[in-house]
Amino acid sequence: MKRKLKICGVNTIQSVKASIKADYIGFVFYGKSPRFVNAIKAKELSIYCSEKQKKVGLFVDSENSVIEYIAEYVGLNYIQLHGNENLEKIMYLKEKLKLPIIKSIAISSKEDCHKIKYYENFCDMILLDSKPSINTLPGGTGKSFDWKIIKDIIFTKDWMLAGGLNEKNIIEALKVTNAPIVDVSSGLESSKGVKCSVKIKKFLEIIKSQESEVYEKN
Q1: Is 8 assigned a catalytic role?
Q2: Cβ neighbours of residue 171 under 8 Å, at least 6 residues apart?
Q3: pLDDT reading at 138 higher than 70
């Protein structure tokens, strides 16, 4: 099984270059995030992505016109909706942009998992992240959720596991969830919003070593 990796929140040339072997590169277009980049910066950074990498734009309840402009200007391959976007917005963007949609679902209990099947009907990929506390960012918090909550779920679409992943817990996370794609951000930083090239490369090595491993959920 080929494990895929998304490195989210890259905002420097150094972090993009270090992430060159990742399958997905995530640009955060959310102004309150320490990983925020604007469209001009993201386009400049895109020059250093490989041709095989998919560029993902992360948006949090952004206006449709903003998403449309950035998607075209930067040349995004995926749109990641990380807020409280409703079905009407999702369907509009799918039709307007002709790009696959990743919908983030915040998980803290079994009840939250009911949203997975609902959004699988309309989105191209699901991203499971930790449910944020009040007055915190919607993602990139560095906190994990209880992975056992999702161990019995049968997914019908590609999906990503996010939320507090790092080099110390990623193997255990894969054993519990058997996630085909992992999304990591704060776990690869030397300080908030600042990616560490050494951590990125080490994490990539770990993921590569797990590519042939398929775990039984228990």
Answers
A1: yes
A2: 206, 210
A3: no
Query: Furthest-apart CA pair in the chain: how many Å?
Result: 46
Token pair belonging to 126: 């699901």
Residue for token digits 């917005």? 89
- C-alpha angle 190/196/200, rounded to 5°? 130
Query: Across the strands, what pairs with 194?
Result: 191
Write down the catalytic residue from 8, 23, 123, 183: 8
Chain segment 9-30, per-residue pLDDT in tens: 999 999 999 999 999 999 999 9
Question: Is residue 218 predicted with pLDDT exceeding 50?
Answer: no
Residue 50 in contact with residue 20, Cβ under 8 Å?
yes
**What DSSP character marks residue 148?**
G
Residues 110/149, Cβ–Cβ less than 8 Å = yes
Q: Which residue carries 């679409």 as its tokens?
A: 157
Q: For residue 18, give every residue at least 6 positions away whose Cβ sits within 8 Å of its Cβ, in sequence order, or none.
A: 195, 197, 200, 201
**In this predicted model, what pLDDT tens digit does every residue of 168-178 receive, in sequence order?**
999 999 999 99
The two beta strands, 78-81 and 54-59, are parallel
DSSP tag of 113:
G
Share of the chain above pLDDT 70, in %: 91
How big is the chain, counted in residues? 218
Give the C-alpha separation, 116 to 39, whole Å.
Answer: 30
Question: What is residue 70's DSSP assignment?
Answer: H
Which one of 124, 129, 183, 196 is the catalytic residue?
Answer: 129
What is the reported pTM? 0.92
